[in-house]
Amino acid sequence: MTLKLLPLDQWPSADRQAWECAIRSGNCLEDGGPASHWAERTKRTILFDYRRWLGHLHHADPDVLDLAPADRVTENRIRIYVAMLQATIKPSGTHNYIKHLFDAVRVMHPGLDWRWLSEVARRLEQLVTPRNKRPRMVSSHELDALGRRLMEEANRATELRALQRAILYRDGLMIALLAARPLRRRNYAGIVIGQNLIKSGDGYHLCFGAEETKTHTALEFPFPDDLVMELEHYLDTYRNAFPGADNHDNLWASAKGVPLGEDAIYSRITKHTKEAFGKSVNPHLFRDCVATTIAIEDPEHVGIAADLLGHTSLEFTQTHYIQADTIRASQSYHSSIKALRQQLSKAAHERQNQERS
Q1: Across the chain, how many H-helices and E-strands are there?
Q2: pLDDT digits over 28-80, tens only?
Q3: I need a surface site. Which of 53, 60, 100, 177 has the fewest CB within 10 A?
């Protein structure tokens, strides 16, 4: 059986040392490693995929593990590795493995020129067929309405146990807030009361430091005014129904006595959207829904979507602006066709009346 992942304790010592140096944290006397700024989740992902590379070498050509880590990464070995991946997984998976291998070696051996490997990853990316997200998208208004409906159901469902009502209300608030402030899932799951959710006058602000965001840019948004009352009702009433909620300050509490994790948030949101719309809308897709809704309904201010989504460029929102133009053009076309059909039908009806008379 092929060893797909080489366990960390079986790594050659040179690889372990290079990785540990790359992720080493800095201090007041020295800088950290090239990957010290990476989020923990990013480190885990890159580490996992580098283990895949070492596992492949361990199986295909174990003697090369005696070489220096950088000396193993040759164009011929990458070609063989890519062929093996393409024979077993989808193009997107192949691209991810090579892209993450590039990310690993460029921080483990920063003095070398890895542009050729980056180019390989770029070419593999071109082979990936983007998934068509449009059939699963709904307007942000529909998402907001779903969240509010769940909160209303929780308030009315006096026959349910306190914890069941709290879960239903929490899920509704999660959906309504995400429809208005479509944060990335890691930031959304990690909202801490008093740190990321901050009381400000009669309202609240959502704040995230540069070290907490994917783009390493600090983010700050006002909490939606029309959800403040619902938020405070959750904080005062429903959050306390979760076991262990007084032992942590995370906004989203769970029935297990710990903060609600990213995977659980994903599961709860897709469950409710599937039931409501017949198709699951995952948390990341909320971002596309919001961007497209803004582009359709307020095209003159489409640039605000970039700020709302925490993007450093307008490329993403311009894509949705173009999509919105397509939607509006399609709507206009179908309206014209419908009007023409009505005119033809009316004319045919008038001719029939004339013939009968």
Answers
A1: 14, 3
A2: 778 899 999 888 889 999 999 999 999 999 999 999 999 999 999 999 999 99
A3: 60
Instruction: Decide: residue 342, CB within 10 A, 0-12 exposed, 13-18 middle, 19+ buried.
Output: exposed
Main-chain dihedrals φ then ψ at residue 137, nearest 5 degrees? -85, 145
In angstroms, what is the C-alpha Rg of the chain?
26
Report, at the CATH architecture level, how domain 8-126 is classified: Orthogonal Bundle (1.10)
> Which H/E stretch holds residue 221?
strand 219-222
The model's pTM: 0.66
In the block, residue with structure tokens 């509490």: 253
Total length of the chain: 357
CA dist., res. 125 & res. 326, Å (int) = 26
d(CA 173, CA 238): 11
Tokens read off for 38? 């990476």
Give domain 136-286's CATH architecture.
Answer: Orthogonal Bundle (1.10)
Task: Give the residue ranges of DSSP H helices in the chain.
Answer: 13-23, 40-60, 69-72, 75-88, 91-108, 115-126, 140-156, 162-180, 185-189, 228-233, 262-277, 283-297, 304-309, 315-356
β-strand partners of 206: 197, 221
Strand partners of residue 199 = 204
Amino acid identity for residue 239 in this structure = R
Contact 207, 312 (CB under 8 A): no
Beta-carbon neighbour count of residue 174 at 10 Å?
Answer: 23
pLDDT tens-digit series, residues 328-346: 433 443 343 345 456 656 6
Query: Which uninterrupted H or E stretch holds 76?
Result: helix 75-88
For the chain, give every domain's residue range.
Answer: 8-126, 136-286
Only one residue has tokens 């997984």, namely: 89
Map tokens 């092929």 to a residue. Answer: 2
Long-range contacts of range 130-136, CB-CB < 8 Å, 24 or more positions apart?
133/285, 133/288, 134/323, 135/279, 136/279, 136/280, 136/281, 136/285
How far apart CA 181 and CA 143 sit, in angstroms, is 12
